[in-house]
């Protein structure tokens, strides 16, 4: 298996993009985020990366976190790439404020289950 496709690397990609996105909007009001083209596009791109990395995780690892809506995470990436106009501001803010922090917690637990992670 290529190291870029390893679960360790994919979990790091997910962690990095979630942490970076949360940090980049720290202190910003929701209205400021959606009004900022740069922040909105950065959030969309980070979600695409998280979605793609989640899709590449092995089933056994995703199954260790059954409360995480993996199909939705993978699906949102496809929506952003192909039907971006269907994703409204409320959905994007919900992903940012609720779902990404929840996923970040799950990633921390998953990292502890995978050999080769320093978590």
Automatic annotation (TrEMBL):
Species: Aquibium carbonis
Keywords: Hydrolase, Nuclease, Nucleotide-binding, Phosphoprotein, Toxin-antitoxin system
One GO cellular component, as annotated: toxin-antitoxin complex
Name under which the protein is recorded: DUF86 domain-containing protein
Pfam families the record matches: HepT-like (PF01934)
InterPro entries linked to this entry: HepT-like, HepT_RNase_toxin
Alphabetized GO MF terms: hydrolase activity; nucleotide binding; RNA nuclease activity
Record keyword Mitochondrion present: no
